[in-house]
Design goal:
The protein is mostly helical and 293 residues long. It folds into 3 domains: 60 residues, no CATH class; 59 residues, no CATH class; 92 residues, no CATH class. The protein contains 13 helices and no strands. Helix 4 packs across helix 5. The longest helix is centred in the N-terminal third of the chain and has 24 residues.
């Protein structure tokens, strides 16, 4: 059958159908496309969105009240987000990495029973928080170590929010590892006190052709590494120190006591055995059996 263009009915029907189909397609595409506001709300602050899941409040919420702690923490190693092992690298959960989820704490107006407060924990529980990350290297022996056995915790010595450094100074930790060692007296180096001493005083290491027995046994036979009122941190003043062992033999056999001091003995006033026996730590001279100069 041939369409007659005069009556116009088939042509109008075809055009109308095309218009309806085009409108339907355009409307469907427009309704399926998200608006700009929806897009922005979806992609804005992924860190904040991630932080506020699972009962976490996020760093912004924490620093609303604890602003000074937040600023101080950024100056510490815990605040270096470029290190993936630090709390700051945990996607907006810097505070809650250690203190646990804080949403309930924030919503309750700061109820301290709804947040993990490290100083208020039992010693083993407080240390367990730190050992979650600090479980290697110098810290590997803390659990079960001397300080752990005596209920000392990490926060007994460390201040997480405002640490202080003694870099460049000789302190207790120059010789001892407070986090525990397999060594005697929690010494850092070796299994014997002399190995700790000669790690700095290498010239006293030896071996010597002529050894001095107390030096070979332990440096602290004569020296007090924790301090002394005598020169060179000696445990006693010369020549009394030497006469703890050398008494009544060779020369002189006089005991340097109060009587000799009263008599102003020339072997007491401003003098000592090391005036002559200078190589007292040991000698490599073939004639050095007396540790002379």
């Amino acid at each position: 059958m041939t369409l007659n263009s005069r009556d116009g009915f088939p042509a109008r029907l075809l055009v109308a159908a095309l218009i309806v189909c085009s409108s339907t397609i355009v409307f469907t595409a427009a309704s399926s496309r998200p608006s700009n506001s929806q897009t922005n709300s979806t992609v804005a602050s992924p860190a904040s969105a991630a932080a506020q899941t699972g009962g976490y409040a996020g760093d912004d919420t924490c620093t609303t009240c604890h602003d000074s702690e937040g600023k101080a923490l950024k100056q510490t190693l815990h605040g270096k987000a470029q290190n993936v092992r630090t709390p700051s690298a945990q996607n907006g959960r810097t505070c809650e990495t250690c203190h646990g989820p804080g949403q309930a704490h924030a919503e309750s107006g700061g109820d301290t029973t709804k947040i993990r407060r490290i100083p208020a924990l039992a010693p083993r529980e407080a240390s367990a928080v730190c050992l979650t990350c600090h479980d290697r290297g110098n810290h590997a022996n803390f659990k079960g170590g001397m300080h752990d056995a005596r209920n000392l915790t990490c926060v007994t010595c460390h201040s997480i929010h405002s640490p202080k450094s003694d870099k460049g100074k000789m302190t207790c930790v120059s010789c001892h590892n407070p986090h525990g060692t397999t060594n005697v007296r929690m010494l850092r180096v070796g299994n014997w006190i002399n190995e700790t001493c000669v790690s700095c005083h290498a010239e006293k290491r030896g071996p010597f052709l002529w050894d001095h027995a107390p030096v070979r046994e332990a440096c602290n036979t004569c020296h007090d590494p924790h301090g002394s009122n005598n020169q060179r941190m000696l445990v006693s003043k010369l020549p009394m120190l030497c006469q703890r062992c050398h008494i009544g033999t060779r020369h002189p056999s006089t005991i340097y006591d109060g009587n000799q001091l009263k008599a102003r003995s020339n072997r007491l006033i401003g003098r000592g055995c090391v005036n002559c026996h200078a190589q007292i730590h040991g000698s490599n001279s073939p004639a050095g059996n007396a540790f002379l100069r």
